[in-house]
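Summary for the lay section of the report: proteins are chains of building blocks that fold into shapes. Here we show the chain for Tetraacyldisaccharide 4'-kinase and then a coded description of the shape we predicted for it.
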Amino acid sequence: MSFADRLQRAWYEGHPALCLLTPLELLYRRVVEARRQRFIDQSNAYRAPIPVIVVGNITVGGTGKTPLILWLIEHCRRRGLRVGVVSRGYGAKPPTLPWRVRPEQSAEQSGDEPLLIVQRTGVPLMIDPDRSRAVRQLLETESLDLILSDDGLQHYRLARDLELVLIDAARGLGNGRCLPVGPLREPAKRLDSVDAVLLNGAEADTANGYAFSLEPVALVELCSGERWPLDHFPYGQQLHAVAGIGNPRRFFTTLETLHWRPIPHPFADHAAYSQEQLKFSPDLPLVMTEKDAVKCRAFAPPGWSYLQVQAVPSAAFITWFDGQLTRLLPDHS
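The coded shape description reads as follows.
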């Protein structure tokens, strides 16, 4: 188990040694809160001429943000809205910034999550750690009604009209402490100022947020793009399961709910792969996440597949969100 894995376990399960990091947590909190105060009224931030919706989290690790972005894109399009996306492009190595992500690019160049979003939806997407610069560049080349900022909650240089925060319902906020003592990027009180909280895996809406789930849709073979039904493998099939995401356990559990027997192979979030790394014994079917698949298509042999999932928000969230779109874009209601 890596140091990062041990640290994450300590955040959610507890460890007495974490108290030794308290001075670093106090320093981190001061820096974070001072930075937020500089932009709290958004007067120092860039305000786009169209509405900006930020989708992010206050915890380290996966919360289902990319599937929700995909749902938001399609939902807004069904209302006739032209949607663009900006992203930091974590791990990307583009030749210049800002960088327009195209479906034929590599994950190394454009980042795995931005490439996944573009390949699934064809949405105009610009990556740049400076998201305000990414928005400006996108608006120079596209006529849009709405911008979605992928994981930009703490990027205060970009003014926003709506903040959506995702939380893993099972793990919650861990020990409720900020980095490095806990998993929080910002103090928990930050949730009081956001517009909506979505709880990934919650069975029903609560006073703390709207429920949403990630539901399996199909298996997709990497090399051919052929879609297989969820009963493609028989009940009890043993298979190799690859997940380089923020919370690999969620993926392995999903495969178990489909009545397969996954042999888990967790990797670091945003991990890069080679074919040699993914040669496991015994010889069994291999299933990975879609985020991993965008990095493996070039060398995947026949038979490797990824599990496609879709976000399913609660009816109450959809009603609330549609009301926000009407408020922000009255001409499109």
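Put simply, here is one thing we learned. The longest helix spans residues 22-39.
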